[in-house]
What we know:
The protein is mainly alpha-helical. The chain contains seven helices and two strands; from the N terminus they run ααααααββα. The chain has helices at 3-9, 14-18, 24-59, 64-122, 127-152, 163-183, 218-235; strands at residues 206-208, 211-213.
Amino acid sequence: MSKISKFFKGGGSAAAKGRGGPSPQEALARLRETEEMLGKKQQYLEARIERELAVARQHGTKNKRAALQALKRKKRYEKQLSQIDGTLSTIEFQREALENSHTNTEVLKNMGYAAQAMKKVHENMDLNKIDDLMQDITEQQDVAQEISDAISNRATFGDEFDEDELMAELEELEQEELNKGMRDVRLPSVPSTSLPSRPGKLPACHFTFLIIKPCSSSRRRAEDEDEMKKLAAWAS
Length: 236
């Protein structure tokens, strides 16, 4: 008995019948075996076709009867090959459909398991308790935010003073420093000699940092003149 007959008659599937039919895995395995067997049959027929063509060429017109018989056999083999091609297409379609059905079945089964697990998880959940819990979480978040804001604000600790009073005190301090600086300034002494009556002939005087030094002697005038010359030479 051929493998095809065993497949369609259910040979070797007594255990599967006892279970109420083959499983998808068993059916897919059978379909793959059938595809493999038909593929080998295709190779056999293609080889026979090539052989009959060689016989027809060999006899040719010398032995027309033998050549025609070879061509007839070739035609039968080609017809069988075409039938096998159609059968393989049908089996391939059936196998893909079965694979897709098996995949969908497994997906639905797993989704059912997930739904049962989710239902079991939600059995011990009370929506009212969940609402209360979320309200408590929100309140605690508000408290935490208030605490964070209070910590981040700059602490005053009695640092509230009148800014106008502080500015007035600062001005008084500055005025005291200014008065102290004015007291430290040394004013020049009044010259003992009388000033000349005609303008333009005042004795040369030496000025250094707002302190006026009178020229009371000829030696001082000579020194001042030397310094003025040095200063004029440096400036030029």
